[in-house]
Every structure is written in C-alpha cells, then in structure tokens.
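Sample entry follows:

_____
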Amino acid sequence: MIQFNSNISFEPDFIKNNQVKAVSVTEFDIKSKNEFTKDCDKVLNSGQEFLPILIDSFGGYVYPVLGMVDYLKSVKVPIITICETIAMSCGAVLFTCGERRIMTKNSTVLFHDMTDTLIGKDIDIQADAKHSTKLKNILSEIISQNLGYEKKWLHKELMSRGNSDWSIMAREAKRLNIATEIGTPKLITTITKKQEIKI
C-alpha cells in the first residue's frame, strides 16, 4: 500500500532505498520507449504487486508514447503514475495511464494540440496532415477515456481555450479527475496475521 503525506516535499526514499522498484520517464523517443518496456518488465518480473511510473518530462515524440500506452494495456497489476514536477505533452499522455495518478503539490500537467511540421510535395503534405489529424484524435481519445470522460472531452477542452496549451496545477487536476491524489508517496507495508484452529 502507498500512503500520502501532502505536507512533505517529494523525496521518494522508498524508491532510492530499493524498497520499491519503479520506472522513471523523462524522454519520449524510440530509445527511451525501449528502455521503458525493459524497465517495466524488470519491475513486473520482481513480483511487485504494482507498477509505479515516475514522470518528469517536457514531452517528446508521439509514436514512442503510443507504444508505451499499448504496452501498459497488457499490464495485469495496478499502474501508479506519479508526476514529480512536470508532465507535458507525451508525459501527460503517459500520466493518464495510471489507475492511481499522483501529483506532488506544486507539479503541473500540460495538454496541448499535437505539434507538426510538414515539408514536401503538396500531395505528401496533404497525406501527412490527414495522418496527423488521426494521431491527434487517437491521443485525445486515449487521454479522455483514461480519465473517465467521453472520447472528445480533451478536444472540447482545448478548443474552448482557443487550442492553446493547457497547464494544470495539482489542485485543479484533482478537481478534474486528471490526478486522483495529491501528495508525497511513502511506502507503508502492512502485514496481516491469520489465525485459525485446525482439527
């Protein structure tokens, strides 16, 4: 069980002391996606009953985060995502994959429309633009559904803000169900004793 104390700054001693194995994510590229799946496999193969993912990221590339999301769909233990300071863009997408989504008191999550630079022949630009729109819709649906909203929720929220970046501090994130908890994770081990009489 993980318990939280929102009056203490985030120092994950329980992870530093190897009491709990966790995956840390700061980048979103092909190399970091491959490291992510290997690190998750190590945690899952350790027998630990939950998968903590620490996110401290300004974002990155779309395809690696989609690969991470697909990988997490196969995980059978509870996933706990922790926004340590910032989870922007792809970091925000990954953050929403947690069954428990924890933000430290002064952390921020940022959602925005997908950024794209299209170069080439006109016909290629048109094809790329259609594909970019599909990717944008996929990301919006993943985030919205992970948070328990209808699939166009994020798209509507961004449009209502003029499609500008949407930075959300912990308290507002909890109110919107983007975060499920605010505070500092601390490991609490509970041992139960079972007594019975046998004949």
Remarks:
- The longest strand covers residues 79-88.
- Residues 1-17 have pLDDT under 50 and may be disordered.
- The chain has seven helices and nine strands.
